[in-house]
Amino acid sequence: MATHNKPFHTLRSGGMKVAIWLNDGIKGPFFSTTFSRSFKDRAGAWRNASSFGFSDLEALMNLTLDAKEWIASRGATPR
Fold it and tell me: What is the DSSP letter of 8?
């Protein structure tokens, strides 16, 4: 698979983010996703986490649906 430094596309909702990555597979290119949550640590520096609390789940669910629609609108594979 190809390695990319930047996501192909990013969707955000508040401090939540889904990164959509373009990958190369045996059967051709495909998309994958990663989810993260931004927060400030005690020193005030911005950090990213891949764990989510109860209050994050609705935004995470909405981002998941948005990512699914974005990928589906491209035929689930890049053109």
Answer: S
What are the structure tokens assigned to 10, written together?
Answer: 């990013």
Sequence-separated (6 or more) residues with CB below 8 Å from residue 72: none
Q: Which two tokens stand for residue 15?
A: 């401090």
- Mean pLDDT across the chain, nearest whole number? 90
Query: Residue 16: how many CB atoms within 10 A of its CB?
Result: 19
User: H/E element holding 64?
Assistant: helix 57-72
User: Is this model's pTM higher than 0.85 or not?
Assistant: no
DSSP 42: T
Candidates 14, 10, 11; CA nearest to 55 is 14
